[in-house]
Structures are given as structure tokens and as C-alpha cells.
Amino acid sequence: MKFYLISLGCAKNLVDSEKLTRFLMKEGYVITDDISNASLVIINTCGFIQDAKKESIETIFSILEEKPKDAKVIVYGCLVKRYEKVLKNLIPEVDLFLSLLPPDKIKDEIMKNFPTTLKAKVEQQKKPLFTPPSYKYIKISDGCGNLCSYCTIPFIRGPLKSLPIEDIVKQVKTALKQGAYEINIIAQDITTYGMDLYGKPSLERLLKCILSIKKDFWLRLLYLYPTRISTDLIKLIKSDSRIVKYLDIPIQHVNNRILKLMNRLYTKEFLYKKIEILREMLPEIALRTSLIVGFPTEREEDFQELIDFIKIVRFEHLGVFEYSPEENTSAFFLKQKVNYNLKRKRRKIIMDIQRKLVRVKNINMKGRILPCLIEFPVDKYGIIWQGRIYSQAPEVDGVVYITGYNNDMNNITNIIINDYKEHDLIGECLR
Questions:
Q1: Residues 32, 110: Cα–Cα separation, whole Å
Q2: If you ran DSSP here, which 8-state letter would residue 269 be given?
Q3: Are 58 and 21 in contact (CB under 8 A)?
Q4: Mean pLDDT for back-to-back runs of 10 residues, the chain (431 residues)
Q5: What is the pairing mode between strands 30-31 and 72-77?
Q6: Per the CATH hierarchy, to which homologous superfamily does domain 135-364 belong?
Q7: What architecture is the 2-124 domain classified under in CATH?
Q8: How many other CB atoms sit within 10 Å of the CB of residue 144?
Q9: pLDDT value at residue 121
Q10: DSSP 220
Q11: What average pLDDT does the structure give for the chain?
Q12: Is 287 helix (H, G, I), strand (E, B) or coil?
């Protein structure tokens, strides 16, 4: 039986989709990238904020139109966890709704409801690629206990559930053996890793175990809570060149009153100091953050405070979300809502500022020689290739378009940056 899988939302969802795919393939199901050949269509949904919910619902309706007449549709994930009863009434054409279960349990439900008769061997199937083979996401924990007032993750995913260190190291070794060069460590908040298993935050312990692998690779850290970035962690990052000098630190806002309403346990002054320490100890560090504009009670002066901070700190990369009121969060009940048009306007203002800051940074990149992870050719002749340097995380930070590369060269090769276009860089391989 052939199945077609769509994964929506974040990289954490993508990891779950990859696991489900592997489990189904081991049971003899065959993955296809052509929906017209599928007997099963599986959609892993996101239900984090309004835009994600809208995308998930639109995707479900689109698939119901597009799929073969006799194909069965299975919808699971975060959206179903939040709205299963509503979805069953709204979209009765879906054959099976499954809540947020571990991938192996989802596999069991699929096998029970839609058993396959003709079983294919895993080795006979083409390995599915949810990401380019050059990098891999490794999810080290699920759930979250931070209880930010705007966030639904604790209600959707539950409390923190860390994977044992030995299991994570095994996943990293497998990914490297399969050809990945970059390992991206992800979770809702990687700095809380191990608190449930080992009684205290254990990210540094985990990283040391990963770094004990005698192999050259990039190790990238994504989603760190500001107050748990310790001096010891910074020293560890500095001590090993395999840890990419890049950190994704969502700060959400900088106005102290707003931060308190968000239940973010730091102040603007703390953020200035932490970023100063990071850039002092790691001069080459590239920082990404995410912000929320239009949080209830956000005044013009609060927003201006955020703008001033961005202009001073000058993040290498930055994303902005418009506040999304979500049921089961304490922020949902706050008064003095910011209207939709003003939220949209504020988001545009910050993105315009960031665009100008990035332009200056990219101009200053011209002439720099840096190692670049080469990923795949952009054109059919192999003249232009796509790659990324240390300051570019997969999918979110832009890429480098490279000339002068051929398959005889290493997948990490030195390039010179010659130009830029918007958020992307243009470079040439050095021979």
C-alpha cells in the first residue's frame, strides 16, 4: 500500500513525520511523492497559532480535492489534539483523525485501520528525503514547562519529556553515517533538556557526549531560553570548532512590563548583558531571535522600545510573529487587545528595519572567505550550487549561491563572498 505524507509546521513536526515514515516502511508500506499513486494520504498538522491552523485546514480541504477517489485521508498532530471534535464535525470526509500520539502509536493505528496486504521490503524502497541529505534535525525532547502566557505548547505537547543521552547520541551517529554533515539540535527549549530525566538541565552534558564522536561535522543549537545560557555553555561552544557559532534565542519582547505579562523570566537589561557577554566571548557569533508584536496592552512606546533594542543589538537574523490569541492560555483573557491592522503594521515596520540591517551586514560580508556546506545544484547543468555558511540555519536564514563547485570537491569547501541578493549571499569556490 502506497502512502503520501505532508508535514506542516515546525522542524519538530518534521522529525515526527520522518519517524512515522520509517515505521510504516518497516511494516511494508511504500512511500510515494506522487499523490495520484497513493492509497493513503497522511497529514501531520500544526495548531500552534491562527496562521498555522488556517494552513492546516486549507491543506486538508485541498488534499480532499486532489487525492485519488478511493484514497483514504488520515489527519493527525497538534491541530487534532486541540480540535478533534470540531474537525470531525467540520470535515467528515476525513477517514481517520488521530490526536497527538508518538509516531509508533500513529503507525499502529494506521495498521489497524488500513492494513497493507502487499508488503515491500525497506531496502527495496527509495529512502525518502524530508530535508536535503546534508543536514539532519535531532529532537532531544518534547513538551515544555516554561508556561509562557501566550503559548499553547504545554497544553498540546504536555510537560518536558527528554530522550536519554545514549538514544540521542545513537541518532546522531546514524545521521552522520547516512551522510549528514550538519546536526541541528532542536526542542521547544533545548536549555531545559534533561531536567526531567537527570534532575537538572543537562544540555552541556549531552553536547559533550555528542562531541565525543570522532568525526568532523557541524553541530547547530536551535531554540535556547535566554536565562539558561550559562557561561559554561558559552565556554563549551567556544572550545570546539564543530559547534557552529550560531544561536537561536527567541526573546519575544524587551519591554519589562510586557515580558512580565508574557511570563518570560528576564528583563531588557538582562538581555543587553547576555548578548554583550555572548559577543565578547564569541566574536563571530551569529544570533537569530523571534519577536511577538501586538501582545495585549502593547503601547506605542512599548513598541518603540522594541525597535530601539533591535537597532542597537543588530541581530543577524530575526523573525516576527503577530500575537495570536489562543484558548487555554492566560494571555487570551487579557484586555486592551491590539487590533489586527496595527499588529500587521508593527510587524512590517520591524521587518523593514531588519531588512536594512541585513543589507549592511551582507555588504560587509563581501570579500570574506568562509567554509560553506554545499547542498545541491540549483540548475540542471551543475553550474550554480546552493549551500550555507555557519550563520545560516536550514530553511530560515537564506542561503549562498555558489559557482565553481564540482562533485570532486569536499561537501565543506572554502568560498569567497562576492555579492548578495536580499537575504541570500553569492559566492565562488576557492580551489
A1: 16
A2: H
A3: no
A4: 89 87 90 91 88 91 92 92 90 91 91 82 61 89 92 89 97 94 95 95 97 96 96 96 97 98 97 97 97 97 98 96 92 93 97 95 94 91 91 93 85 93 92 74
A5: unpaired
A6: tm_1862 like domain (3.80.30.20)
A7: 3-Layer(aba) Sandwich (3.40)
A8: 22
A9: 63
A10: E
A11: 92
A12: strand
Distances (CA, A) of 175 to 4, 66, 209, 363: 23, 34, 15, 35
Measured CA to CA, the distance from residue 431 to residue 413 in angstroms comes to 9
- Measured at the CA of 310, the angle between CA 308 and CA 311, to 5 degrees, comes to 65
Contact 204, 232 (CB under 8 A): yes
Q: 239: burial class by Cβ within 10 Å (0-12, 13-18, 19+)? A: exposed
CA distance 383 to 34: 28
pLDDT of residue 125: 60
Q: Report the CATH fold assignment for 366-429.
A: OB fold (Dihydrolipoamide Acetyltransferase, E2P) (2.40.50)
Domain ranges of the chain: 2-124, 135-364, 366-429
Query: pTM of the full predicted structure?
Result: 0.88
Alpha-carbon distance 382 to 375, whole Å? 12
- 121 dihedral zone (left: phi>0; alpha: psi -120 to 50; beta): beta
Taking the C-alpha atoms of residue 301 and residue 253, their distance in angstroms, rounded to an integer, is 13
Q: For residue range 205-233, list pLDDT tens digits in order.
A: 999 999 999 999 999 999 999 999 999 99
d(CA 338, CA 124): 55
Q: How far apart are CA 188 and CA 242, in angstroms?
A: 23
pLDDT of residue 380: 84
d(CA 395, CA 392): 9
